[in-house]
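Reopening this one. Same input as before:
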Amino acid sequence: MATPFAPFASIRMVWERPTAALTSLRDGTRATVDQVVIEAFLDELGGSGEQAIGAQAVSGSSISGNLTRWAVLPSGASWLDSGASWTWDETGLRPDGLPRGEQLQAFIGNLSALPAVGQAEIGHITIATLSTEGGIDGLVRALAGDEFTGTFAAGR
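Same output, byte for byte:
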């Protein structure tokens, strides 16, 4: 079941999830990765409580919101494709292994217009916090998806 925030998702992120052990301890090279596309509803953009509507991102802005869905990117597809034929997990819970502190490439804008990017911001998000499984977070995340906070830096 999709979260109530799904129709209002306005950010798409892509994360390289390691799928195998390191191939070399010396240089830390990963053997393989999955490209995981994550969509979310932005609740707040910037420290002022300004709503995240359209491409209003400012480099270094703090952001917060709720994850709505994620999918493993099919081979040969772009993370900015429409995603209509992808297999989505719509629980709003983060993909297995997504850690805090991870930097993800991000697109903030009208997701329903993809693959056209139009007036959007492309940059990077560093995830600062993610919901936890216990306590009140556990109750909220079952209904609204995982909450997250982070910092957005504009630029390709």
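So the earlier flakiness isn't reproducible anymore. For the record, The chain is about 5% helix and 40% strand.
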